[in-house]
Amino acid sequence: MLLKWFQLNNWSIRYKLIFHFLLISILPALGIGVLIGWATNETIGNQVNAHTAQLIGNVNKSLDSYAGNIQNISYFIAMNPEIGRFLKEGSAALAEERDRYRTAKFLQGFTTLYSEIAGIMVVNADGEYFSNDMYARSDRNLTEEDWYREAVKAKGIFKLIGHPSQRNVTTHANYKDSEVVSVVRAILDPDTQQTEGVVLIDLKLRVISETVRDVRLGKSGYLMVVDDKGGSIYAPRNSLVGRIDQVQLADQTSGTFSQEIDGRRVQFIYQKSPFTNWTTVGVFAMEDTVQEIKEINLYLVTFVFIVCLLGIAASYYLSHSISRPITQLASSMRKVEEGNLNIRVAGERRDEVGMLGRSFNKMLAQITRLLSQVGEEQRLKREAELRSLQAHIQPHFLYNTLDTIQWLARKDGANGAAEMVEALSRLFRIGLSKGQEMIPLSDELDHIRSYLKIQQTRYRDKLNYSIEIEPGLDDMIVLKLVLQPLVENAIYHGIKERRGPGRIAIRAAASSGILTFTIEDNGAGMTEERLSWLRATLEAAGAQKDGTGASKGEAPLPDTGGDLPRRADTVTGSYGLRNVQERIRLSFGEQYGLTIESKQTLGTTVTVSLPVILGKGRSGHEPDMESTDRGR
Question: What tens digit of pLDDT does each residue of 534-573 get?
């Protein structure tokens, strides 16, 4: 029941109109809203990510600039002559106060010029160091420190190692490990490439924090800097994370990822500096990023709601205004179905419904007139059927039959005449068929047998015939009096015109829904010109009245160009064929009818195609084959 209700064809026209109006008004609004919301989310999300990536890029450039300055400072320190002698000779190179003072002033110049430098220390290969801001906490050899080993491992390449941890070095200002970032670079002998010493520079974290902390991402987003191991170089106090797993950063120089922290979805956008090997990460909550998107979505939802509300109201109003007159018209039709032909549709509408109402009123008036004519037309139709039956029987055939009966009566007595009279009466009985146009195939075959029996009595040994019926055709019904005109033509225009005995073969078969009769004779045949003329005559049979004045059943003779005169006997010879062709096509359509093949002196074959129509309630079985061959 529910499935039947969902079938659109079962709905009333009002509900169909409401449904279609809602589709037209609501679906586009929903589609536009979803499309705009999706496009807005994508656009704003991409813009946020692009803007964040740009800020991170600018921060990385600033950090790279500071690191570049520190790298240059390490180069300057390595090229200083006093520093060079210290690395080779140790403390003895700076034994004099003047050299020691000049070297100290040299290092102090960097700390004065670059306020971000917390201290500089130069350590030679023996563990001796020189610095004006930094000193060793204990007597432990500084070459055993991790930062020194990392510098040696880098082989002269500038390297940032992050916050110092448990090192044997401190500064006079006593900076905490978390307040400075250490930078190291090994100084190599240009000839032997052996490490002569290491330059250690502590960079104040303030310079990094000043570069990063002023960058805000949304309401609560921020930037943080991590080293190549994921450890935090800089992070604000409200940082949600302290250390980032290197697996998240992967091996890419930039990218995005998200994860859930304390019940909040957090977005990470990172970019790695190839110079410092540090990664700047933008951290912001997803809910802060989509705040603008939420506002836009709120506007879209409001818009779609208003459009849907207006669409529903308009749908109900329009459907009611359209369906109401149609419903009234349907109500009038139901009353007509009950037999009330006096009802009329009122109203002066000028639209299509009004036109239907006026046409409905005219139709009822015409039906009333037509009902009064039905009885008279039925009587005229019956008379026309009787006249058609009479037209099938040729006057000369009746004359010859009566002449044959008289001749037999004089020669043989009453027996032969009785047979002829019996065959003739059966011929008339089947021809009348109680006024029915369709008769069983067995009756049609009885009719043609009676006809051939009469004709064979007349022509004796000159006429032989055979009837072959495919098994299983007994229950079929056919158009009556189809075969007799064709056999008559075969006798009078084929067998009669040839010398010696002639033969007519009648075959019936059914295939693919088509019942086929074949009437084949070995008579005189016809010329190509006459065959073409006859085919054109049959093709014109059944046509409606045209400009030549010919009406149905009286097709105009085709123009033969003078090759074949339109003689009276030619017209008479084609009348039976045209009559059969006309009746078949009027009854079943243009795809059925007669086809003719003929060769002069070789004979003629006429093929009749009819639709297979099965009858019900038939009994009996006619012989499948009947053959009469006299004189052989």
Answer: 999 888 875 544 433 344 444 444 444 334 444 334 444 5
pLDDT: which is higher, 149 or 92: 149
- Are the beta carbons of 212 and 234 closer than 8 angstroms? yes
Compare 407 and 140 and report the one with higher pLDDT: 140
The pTM (predicted TM-score) of the whole model is 0.43
Task: Return the closest-CA partner of residue 524 out of 552, 492, 551, 546.
Answer: 492
Are 83 and 103 within 8 A, CB to CB? Answer: yes
- Exposure class string for 2-32: b at 16+ Cβ within 10 A, else e: eeeeeeeeeeeebeebbeebbeebbeebeee
Tokens 């639709």 correspond to 611
| Residue 259 burial (CB count, 10 A) | 13
Pairing of strands 463-469, 438-440: unpaired
Question: Buried b vs exposed e over 123-151: b needs ≥16 C-beta within 10 Å?
Answer: bbbebbbbbbbbebeeeeebbebebbeeb
> Given a cut of 90, is residue 508 above it in pLDDT?
yes
Residue with tokens 């994921």: 230
Task: Choose among 526, 540, 496: nearest CA to 606.
Answer: 526
Concatenate the DSSP letters of all residues of 267-282 into one string. EEEEEE-TTT--EEEE
CA dist list (Å): 449 to 408, 425, 485, 507, 627: 20, 13, 13, 13, 10
| DSSP 8-class letter at 101 | H
Cα(487)–Cα(508) distance, rounded to whole angstroms?
14
The rounded distance, in Å, linking the Cα atoms of 378 and 118 is: 124
Backbone angles phi, psi at 497, to 5 degrees: -85, -10
By residue count, the chain amounts to 632
Cβ–Cβ under 8 Å, residues 165 and 177: yes
Tokens matching residue 311: 């669409």
Question: Out of 156-165, 274-283, 422-431, which region has the weakest mean confidence (pLDDT)?
Answer: 422-431
Long-range contacts of residues 37-44, Cβ cutoff 8 Å, at least 24 apart: 37/296, 37/297, 37/300, 40/293, 40/296, 40/297, 41/290, 41/293, 44/290, 44/292, 44/293, 44/296
Question: How far apart are alpha carbons 259 and 285 in whole angstroms?
Answer: 10
User: Chain-centre distance of CA 41, in angstroms?
Assistant: 29
Q: Are 279 and 223 in contact (CB under 8 A)?
A: no
